[in-house]
Amino acid sequence: MRSSTFPPGILLGIFIARAACGETFDYIIAGAGTCGLVLANRLSADPNIRVAVIEPGEDVRSNVNVTNPALFTVAYGTSIDWQYSTTPQPAASNRTIPWHAGKAIGGTSTINGTQCVRVLIKGMTYIRGDKPQFDAWERLGNEGWNWESLYPYFKKIEKFTVPSTAQTAAGATYDADIHGETGHVHTGFPFSLVNGSFHGLAADTWDALGYPLNEDVNSGSVRGFSTWPQTLDRDRNLRFDAARSYYYAVEDRKNLRLIRGTVKRITWARSSAAGQPAVADGVEYVTTNGELNAVTAAEVILSAGALRSPLILESSGVGNPSLSTSLLNSLGIETKIELPGVGEYLQEQPNTILAYSSTLNLSGSTPYATFSTAQDMFGDETSSIETSTLARIPGWAKKVAAASNGAVEAANVEKLFRVQHDLIFKQNVTLGETLTAVTGGYFYSAMWLLLPFSWGSVHLTSAEAIDAPAIDPKYFFVDFDANVQVSLGRLAQKFWHTKPVSDFVGGSVLPPDGVLPLNATDEQWTSYIGDTLMPNHHPIGTASMMSRELGGVVDSKLRVYGTKNVRVVDGSILPLQFSGHLTATLYAVAERAAELIFEAARYE
């Protein structure tokens, strides 16, 4: 096993605990999802390193609802879905909104997708994002985290399949130089691409609205109209989730063990005191039979996702004990490390859908995405909106901070909002995404703002309820977000009423005709959006990688502040939203994390 620099007394205590337990590892990984399985694969590649992965979900390699790309949303509401829901959302007609997350070996990569009434809108999407959004991470205290440092990992993970002649005719375009050819994650375009006639209609219509064709949306600039690849093996028509990509081929390694159970809390060999970091010696987990077990290790890595890793930290005494909220104290949890940012800064994107009848009758799938900048959406008003929103940032920050009951400071939120504002208005990154789809006799649009200023939280509801988080995304808490969503709705509506595609559009189906006329008011749009919005399932930020002073939870080595041997590697560490879908970035982050962990071990 790897060497350690723990003080002799602490090291002896850890080995005694291990001997009593009978289970000892170098690394325990909480969660067999997208990031957790990358780490399990890479770390266990050294036969001298023992790795345990603890995961409550089942093996789904033979579950047709997972393997068949066309059936991805059928798994919603089944045993492989955590079936969460949000707290009541005032801007969404006070609804509690269902929230899906994968409970399986492979995590959410086994079920990711969105369904709207009659059609599968999207799933398994592989889009990286805009370069400046990743460069902004470095501005938040994360030395060495930027587009340039992540780019090699984006290529490393990928095994891209060049589109066929028929797929090219249906709109599949690409730049071979920016894709990987030998990675673990198969990417490409499905054979179910709708025939090229619709692609031409969609491309020509978006072009008429000022959105040119983007040859490859993974170049680091996503603006425009594009056909995006998915995480699948085209020739086998097979979803390539994280387990298929990183686990099944190595599951028989003698130094890699998968334990079925739910990690409940970290156990500590030494608490943080007198300037010394806390030292973890393992975790407690609940077995599938409901028994409480413990396992020990030299290092604990949380990869349970943006909705669960913060809960494990809080259950372990890492979080906010302040007098203004007393979260840990109110739950009867002893504070080990004071990190008020745990569970805060939740950033999620609201999704709205429009549907129309169509005189075309096409089957298949249409992964066509259009990305808009602020200039695209606001036109001549962009400069004035830039000025007015900048002036309102202090007020927004105070509002977000107040809603956290003091867990985050307004000054810190303001700094983060100013970075995001700069990205939107100075660096002209994309602010909205619109999907365009057709199947059978219906046309669809799904749209969402990419960079919300409405930041929420996820927290424990009790010390024992690790599976019942309070998820509060605070949709449209900041009114600018609602304005952007309305603008995206109007853009999608305008698209379907613009030639040449308008020649094939019938009446409105969702909402019914007359609810949103072409001259609909902002109030009508806001009402419809609130009544129908759904999660985009891109939660990030709840254990942010940034300076501790800003409310960060992990440092640039992904180590939890105030600890010697606890890391978080999953979507919770991403500090700002970006104009991509999470999968590509999570794989890249996990690959880089594995190298950082190996590098740290060499110096210990």
Automatic annotation (TrEMBL):
One of its GO terms (molecular function) is oxidoreductase activity, acting on CH-OH group of donors. This is Glucose-methanol-choline oxidoreductase N-terminal domain-containing protein. FAD binds at residues 108, 263, 571. Belongs to the GMC oxidoreductase family. It comes from Xylaria grammica. Keywords: FAD, Flavoprotein, Oxidoreductase, Signal. The keyword GTP-binding does not apply. InterPro entries: FAD/NAD-bd_sf, Glucose_Oxidase_domain_2, GMC_OxRdtase, GMC_OxRdtase_N, GMC_OxRtase_C. The keyword Flavoprotein applies. Its cofactor is FAD. It comes from the Eukaryota. It holds the Pfam family GMC_oxred_C. PANTHER family: GLUCOSE-METHANOL-CHOLINE GMC OXIDOREDUCTASE (PTHR11552), GLUCOSE-METHANOL-CHOLINE OXIDOREDUCTASE N-TERMINAL DOMAIN-CONTAINING PROTEIN (PTHR11552:SF201). Residues 1-22 form the signal peptide. The active site is at residues 538, 581.
